[in-house]
Structure formats: structure tokens, C-alpha cells
Amino acid sequence: MIALLLLMLWNVPNIWSYNVGIKEGASTFVNLSINIEKTSFAGYSLNVQNFDGNLSIVAGAPMYNTSKANGAIIQCAKISGSEDDGYLNGNTSCWVKVDGNNLLLRDNQKQKADGFGTSLVQLNSTQEYVSCGPGRQKICGPTGERSQFIPGSCYKGELSNMKMKQDWGEIDCFSNYIDVVFLVDSSNSVTEADHVVIKEILKNITDSFSHSFGDTTQIAIVQYGTNVKDLKIDQPVGLGECDESQCYVEALDNRMDHLRGVDTLTAAAIQYVVQNVFATSRNRFLARQFLVVITDGQATDAADLTASFAMTQDANITVYAIGVGGRIDPYELNIIANGNRDNSLRVLTTEKYSELNQELATVTAQLATFSTEGFSAVNVTITLENAMQGLSVQLSEQTFQRKAVNNSDG
User: Fold this and answer.
1) Would you state the pLDDT for residue 261?
2) Residue 171 burial (CB < 10 Å; 0-12/13-18/19+)?
């Protein structure tokens, strides 16, 4: 019978591994670094059983290094023999039973199970164990703007088939889809020179969405004018048509001609975009949708602007209005953008088209934040993303409780 079980450090200055000390009358020590790399922290957690006088040890080695993860569980069986200089000589056999490379890799994980084996318990009267790796990391977001989380992980099962415990509070990485339509006034009040300026400025729009354009961000350019008295629409770039900047720029170069419309049917153009552009987007059920209206004059159909705003709200479309020059009507811009509920909400103005670039940069910078990881169209709590689950484990009536740190919920 085992009277006392002790943990001791071997070679303390370098902390190579932990050792099991078993006392029953005389002392016997088992060096867990036998056949295991010395820096593995073997024995940091362990389970010991006595089978007819022979000990069986299952121990965590959270610093055991593999190509993809740190951590392992080692097993030592048939431990018996005589003591020689404090270490057991005889029938000692230790081997790595499971390491991070044997565990299934979840999406977006930087490493499989950093610190696997930090905690370890055996489920009573079974061959199943629970072992945790509180340092498991997860990477979310696009290249260059990635966020790193340390949710940790716990695994349950027989040593040959351990599976990660899920649905405990960690959420999957999520992508934010956005549709952006730029609706551009192309009436006679816009000079040919100004039209060229607008086109050149619009070519740079995709720079703000470099991490998501063609993936989760779709951009369309729509011009409006009139053909005699009827609305005339031109769409140089459709939503989802281009998935790279070169395609987008070439489309503007080849297709964006000045319409020279007599009237400025802004309300009618907004209604057209809602019904025929946003409503047909392939991401319409996933994406937040934004409309940016650029105009340099008063709307010929100003009486219909309130109705067009209501249509955008019914479709859950957020509208920005940019007015250029001295002929704009601030009241109309407010109706377009916010139903005249706020004198400045999503309304920008500039004196001339050569200064439009600055205002568009402000708008696109705001829109780009909605397509970046960490923002969501729904309310998602991510307080457990850095919980470091599994720093310790406690077995209680066949259920196990996991302790975590860095959790703002406590």
C-alpha cells in the first residue's frame, strides 16, 4: 500500500522534470525523465495506481515539445525493482502515450494544445482521462490584422482517443460580410474634369478593404442621371463582380462614362439601388449593407427623398451622404442619410471634387472597421476567448470542473 506520494524536482536549477517519490518504510524514487526529454516537465500532473505491487503512472508533461504543439501525457508501467542512489533500477518502462500531434486541430488554431498535460484526472473506474492545455492559442482575422486569443482547451477520453471539450463558452472565429454601393451623381452639373477626378478617387476605394475585398467585402459603383426625363442608371462595377483590385480598376477605366443627365433624380436612384442592387446581392442574408450617395446639386425629385430613406431603413441599409460644392442642400443630405433626424449623422460636405478624396477616406475607414475581425453584426460575448481553460481540473461525482484565468466573467 502506498503510504505517501511526493513530487520532487530533479535538477532544480534547470527544472528538467518532476519525479515521483513513494514512501513505504524506505524511500523509492522514479525518475520520469527516463526515456523522456529532460525539459518536458514530466510529472507536473499525474495519476498513480497500484496493481498487485506494481505501480502504473500516467503523468502530464506540459513542456514536451513536438513540431506543432507543446505537451504530452506519458505512461510508466510495471514499476518495480531496487533503489540505487535514490533512483529506481529494474522494470521501469516510460513512453509518450499521447501528445499534441495526436489531437484534432480545430479551425484557426495556432497550435494544437500548448501546455497539454498541465492538469490531469482519471474518471473513476474507467480508462478515460481529462487533461487540459491552458495555453492553446487561436488566431482570428485577416493577415496583417490578426487577433490572438488563448482560450485554452480540455480533452476527454481514453488516452488513445482524446477529444476536445467544446461548447463551454469559446466562440468560433467569425467573418463580417459587408456590401458597399457608391451611388454617384452623373448629371450635367458635374463637369467632365470633375468626372475624371471622381473616377480616379473611386479607383483607390479598395485600398481601405485590402484585407477583405473579394472575400467578405463586395463593392459596387452605380452612376445616375436622366435620359430625357427618365432615370438613367449605369453600373460600371456590380456587387461581387470583382474579387481583386485590378478587375475593379479596369472596370472603372473601361465602363465609367459621364452620363450628362439633365435632371438629378436622387430619390429614384436610391430606390433603384435598394430594389435592384442590394436585393440581388449573393451575400444579402449575411452582409451589413451600406450606401454612399455622392451628389453636387439639389434633387429634382426632392419630394420623394423621405420615401427613399424609408425604403433604405426597411431594407436595413445604412446610408452616408456626401455633398460637393455650393449648390448642395444640407436639408436634403440629412434626409438621405438619416431622415433628417440628426443634422450631422453620416453627412459630409466638401467645397470641390478635388477635395472629395479626404471625405471618402473618412467614410471608407469607418466602413472598413465593420469588415474587420472583432466586430459582429450580432451581439457576441468573447470574454472567454482568453480564459486559459484547464489550468486546473477537479473531479467531482463523475463530472469535472475546469478552472480558468483571464476571464472577465470570473
Assistant:
1) 83
2) middle
